[in-house]
Design brief:
The chain is α/β, with parallel strands linked by helices. The protein is built from 20 helices and 19 strands. The chain folds into three domains: 3-219, Cobalamin-binding domain (Rossmann fold, 3-Layer(aba) Sandwich), CATH 3.40.50; 246-344 and 551-591, Transcription Regulator spoIIAA (2-Layer Sandwich), CATH 3.30.750.210; 347-475, Transcription Regulator spoIIAA. Helix 3 crosses helix 6 and helix 14 (399-417) packs parallel to helix 15. The longest helix has 19 residues, at 399-417. It is globular and about 70 Å long.
Length: 591
């Protein structure tokens, strides 16, 4: 028995670390070797469609081998360190530092220290400035890359936007260049590529950004034609159950709604749909090649996919035994027929705010009548468990808006008890998270509420929602505060991330691993203040992410912010283009 086998026998869920899954890439070694790293555990990473698309794009290039690596749980990480075994890729079992390129997917700000944990376990210096040509190119992509600055010193390059085409281009460029510097210089000319070492940030005496120097404009990469873009027609089937253990297709990219707090809604514009024909073909290939009995139709707002009924009909005809999951249905696109397709134990709705006034402010175009209509349909279909998601701390929010959350709950209870044929065991779970003003949204200038405000709001909601059959949960404020610092941070936050990691906080998206006190210590020791990052920003201030061109214009965000304060709603893009800036270069489907 070798050293690795012995260690595997001593840790929890060793199947996370052995590879060899059905449909997994076979071990190989080519001219260019790329390892996709996912900064969370195997079960989470195996459910991620984005990294499978990236792998598919890379595999279109001759001479490229692609492997994978997920973050080891703490027990395995400790064993690797103790036994001096560098972190390795799943199929080849080769150390990460043997690869030519390593790409991390940044899906959630709280994964940042886990990136450092993985680099450290791989015995790769954390900062790009300390890595010479003998080390792989370390790059990052994914939704958090839209504000790359807090992680800038750790990566050689970031990919901003869609990965389908740019990843293959980068692989070709790497094959055609000799040194890291030559590669990075040339890569920085491509749309969607940001090389932090080629840009400098200048601060004024008050610590505000004065300007950027060097290569100061980075435009996001956009894949124009999703139907003809690469898509993985088969996927590895996990050795152990993934969090979403099912086949996945993406029906549409972008969302027509434009909720003003929602970064994803702006990030993935233009709105592009895949055709029913392509989706059916992908679904059939995926289900047949994996044996999954469930297929998820993913997108930001699947109910808005205009041909959903047609697609469901085709899927039913071609995959009669496959259960269909519709994970992101909005209340107003809720339909009895869709629930039949997607039977779950409880139904989830996200009104986000308790009153119509506040829903208009955030542009969540949902009325109480729609909530009532949807729960009625759900109850008719036999559901007796409803999950509701809201936010607190939204711009202009008052106590009355919080009370509105309880009013919605009571309304649902009334609908239920009005019909004697429903069973007497309705359960409503209300989950409220703290609003985080994210970059590239009309609310990017807003402040985040303070801990005192948070405590007041939770207390009020607790009192209002202390009702039989209702459970109320809220998020940990420290986590929201840290997430805000990381989402809105500048390059100086990198020191905090490194310190927090060195103090032992990593795998932070797991509550048992997050050490918020270590993060707060790190912020103090770096001489920074949380309030500098959670405060309201001036509209004429230079924001750390201003050098990224997300194609939606800043003027549009400002216009939307003004409309928010006057309670004016902006309707769906499917009812007409709203001129967000994307229309100057792209045509959204149906606009
Ligand atoms: S419906 Fe609103 S919250 Fe949901 S993805 Fe679209 S913009 Fe975001
Ligand atoms: S270009 Fe028009 S239709 Fe497309 S996302 Fe922007 S506002 Fe909506």
């Amino acid at each position: 028995m070798n050293k690795l086998d012995k260690i595997l026998l001593s840790v929890e869920k060793p199947a996370r670390y052995i590879g060899g899954e059905y449909n997994a890439p076979k071990a190989d070694w080519k001219k260019l070797n790329y390892c996709i790293c996912f900064p969370d555990v195997y079960e989470v990473g195996m459910s991620n469609l984005g990294i499978r698309i990236v792998a598919e794009s890379l595999r279109t290039v001759d001479g490229v081998y692609v492997d994978r690596c997920f973050a080891p749980w703490r027990d395995y990480g400790e064993q690797l360190k103790e036994n001096d075994i560098p972190l390795y890729a799943l199929s080849t079992k080769r150390p990460l530092k043997d690869f030519d390129m390593i790409g991390f997917s940044l899906g959630f700000e709280m994964c940042y220290t886990t990136v450092l944990y993985m680099l450290d376990l791989a015995k790769i210096p954390l900062r790009s400035a300390d890595r010479g040509d003998e080390y792989p190119i370390i790059q990052a992509g994914g939704p958090c890359a839209v504000n790359p600055e807090p992680m800038a010193p750790f990566f050689d390059l970031f990919v901003i936007g869609d990965g389908e085409e740019i990843m293959a281009e980068l692989a070709k460029l790497k094959l055609a260049t000799k040194t890291k510097n030559e590669f990075l210089e040339k890569a920085s000319e491509l749309d969607g590529v940001y090389v932090p070492a080629l840009m400098e940030v200048k601060y004024d005496d008050n610590g505000l950004i004065e300007g950027f120097g060097g290569k100061t404009k980075v435009k996001k990469a956009v894949c124009r034609d999703l139907d003809n873009a690469v898509f993985p027609h088969k996927m590895p089937v996990g050795n152990i159950e993934a969090i979403f253990d099912r086949a996945v297709i993406e029906v549409m990219r972008g969302c027509p709604r434009g909720c003003r707090f929602c970064q994803a809604g702006f990030l993935y514009r233009p709105i592009r749909q895949r055709s029913v024909e392509h989706l059916t073909e992908q679904a059939v290939c995926l289900v047949r090649s994996t044996g999954f009995d469930e297929l998820s139709l993913n997108s930001l707002s699947t109910g808005d996919y205009p041909k959903l009924k047609e697609l469901l009909k085709e899927l039913k005809a071609n995959l009669p035994d496959t259960k269909i999951a519709l994970p992101s249905l909005r209340i107003d696109s809720f339909d009895g027929e869709f629930i039949e397709q997607s039977r779950k134990s409880s139904l989830t709705f996200a009104p986000e705010a308790g009153t119509q006034r506040l829903r208009d402010v955030i542009n969540k175009d949902i009325s109480e009548d729609e909530v009532e209509r949807s729960v009625k349909i759900a109850f008719e279909k036999g559901y007796s468990s409803i999950k509701l998601y809201f936010m607190m701390g939204l711009p202009t929010e008052t106590d009355e808006d919080l009370d509105g959350i309880a009013d919605i709950v009571f309304k649902i209870k009334d609908v239920y008890s009005a019909n004697p044929k429903y069973a007497r065991n309705l359960r409503i779970s209300v989950s409220v998270s703290t609003f985080i003003p994210k970059p590239f949204t009309p609310f990017q200038w807003e402040r985040q509420i303070t801990r005192e405000e948070f405590e007041h709001k939770v207390k009020r909601l607790k009192e209002k929602l202390f009702v039989k059959g209702v459970t109320f949960s809220w998020n940990d404020f420290s986590l929201s505060e840290l997430e805000a610092v990381l989402a809105r941070g500048d390059r100086r936050v990198a020191d905090v991330i490194e310190k927090a990691y060195k103090k032992g906080s990593f795998l932070d998206s797991w509550s048992e691993c997050l050490k918020a006190d270590k993060w707060f210590e790190a912020i103090d020791e770096c001489g920074l203040k949380i309030s500098s990052y959670t405060r309201e920003r001036g509209e004429d201030e230079i924001l750390p992410w201003d050098f990224i061109d997300l194609i939606v214009t800043k003027d549009y965000f400002l216009k939307e912010r003004k409309k928010a304060y006057s309670g004016e709603v902006t309707g769906s893009c499917f009812k007409g283009c709203k001129g967000c800036g994307v229309q100057k270069e792209f045509k959204c489907d149906r606009c």
